Amino acid sequence: MSSTRCQTMIELTDEPLDPTAILALVADDDCGAQIIFLGCTRRTTGEKITQQLTYQAYRSMAISELRGLAEKAANRWNLRRLAIYHRLGEVAVGQASVAIAAASPHRPDVMAAIPWLMDRLKETVPIWKQETFADGSSAWIHP
User: If phi over 0 gives left and psi between -120 and 50 gives alpha, with beta otherwise, what is residue 88?
Assistant: First the structure.
């Protein structure tokens, strides 16, 4: 499928992510499969208790990389709509850091595209994560 047939929305934001609004962006009456993945700050990492995550990005390059990933996904799977939103700044436990929503006429395409996009995002997009723990220590986390 040509990526020109896939409507794509990409955003880096300092505001909390609204899963309902992001899923609404990919709503399409011709798509029987509409899915959203949320990556959220978990409470524990190994033995440590997480207080929050802080994300930084090289914004222009990150947007460019996300657009490229969206185009590759649209060319690989029959996606009609795709939204990739990533939060920057401080993200508390339980809050979403990333949301990827997709719509396709059929389930296999979105079920394959979402994990592929998330894996590539972590590998290639210049967004960095610092984890702050309850004991006051912190560490930059690399995928």
Answer: beta
Of 9, 3, 14, nearest to 91 by C-alpha is 14
Q: 117: domain CATH number?
A: 3.90.1170.40
What pLDDT, in 10s, does the model give residues 28-69? 999 999 999 999 999 998 899 999 999 999 999 999 999 999
* E-strand stretches of the chain: 7-13, 33-40, 44-45, 48-57, 81-87, 89-92, 96-104, 127-133, 138-141
Query: Any idea how long the chain is?
Result: 143
As for how many domains the chain has, the answer is 1
Question: Strand pairing of 7-13 and 81-87?
Answer: parallel
The predicted pLDDT at position 6 comes to 96
Give me the phi and psi of 5, to 5 degrees please: -90, -5
Residue 142 reports pLDDT greater than 90? no
Q: Which residue has the tokens 């702050």?
A: 132
Tokens 């499969």, located at residue: 33
Residue 41 structural domain: 3-141
Distance CA 15, CA 48 (A): 26
